[in-house]
Amino acid sequence: xxxxxxxxxxxxxxxxxxxxxxxxxxxxxxxxxxxxxxxxxxxxxxxxxxxxxxxxxxxxxxxxxxxxxxxxxxxxxxxxxxxxxxxxxxxxxxxxxxxxxxxxxxxxxxxxxxxxxxxxxxxxxxxxxxxxxxxxxxxxxxxxxxxxxxxxxxxxxxxxxxxxxxxxxxxxxxxxxxxxxxxxxxxxxxxxxxxxxxxxxxxxxxxx
Length: 208
Fold this sequence. Notes:
CATH architecture of the domain at 60-112 and 126-207: Up-down Bundle
Largest sheet: 2 strands, antiparallel
CATH class of the domain at 60-112 and 126-207: Mainly Alpha
GO cellular component, one term: membrane
Structural class: mainly alpha
Order of helices and strands: HHEHHHEHHH
Distance between the termini: 64 Å
Strand order of the largest sheet: 1-2
Protein name: Isoprenylcysteine carboxylmethyltransferase family protein
Shape: globular
Helix content: 55-70%
Transmembrane segments: 20-42, 82-106, 140-167
Strand content: under 5%
CATH topology of the domain at 60-112 and 126-207: Four Helix Bundle (Hemerythrin (Met), subunit A)
Number of strands: 2
Low-confidence stretches: 11-20
Membrane topology: Multi-pass membrane protein
Subcellular location: Membrane
Oligomer: single chain
């Protein structure tokens, strides 16, 4: 007797799109996370990085935000969403999240061996100001922030929205720390000039 995978897919797809909206969005985020972890083995040799204690300035809000963002927090608090998205709104949110994730991957691939999950100075490091890095200085953070905020709004719970905001603030803080670090490592003339030319997180804004 053969197993009907189409029936299983139909049930799963219906569940993702007619119940809690993050069931659809969670699949997208899990696929991104798995691919991101797999790609983390492809990076250049690190020469110098920000110390662990210093990195707590961005790691802590991201960690706390991540805990608040999970569905288990809302379940423990018996929290109900402030609103419920329609299927159409969920699809639109999913497209926004996919666009954000695609932007992170464009940035990741364009950065190549200079990418790192932490704030580091890689071997032969140089300023990359082409591709997505000609649009914003931190395209990976831009994509993640857009996707996280869209997901938090779609979930609609106070904890999910607050978690998304904390994660976004943590990424912004990491970006600021990274810029101070790279300005010292790569030189104010090189990286500082780049910062004065390209917006940090939000495209088309005046660079700051």
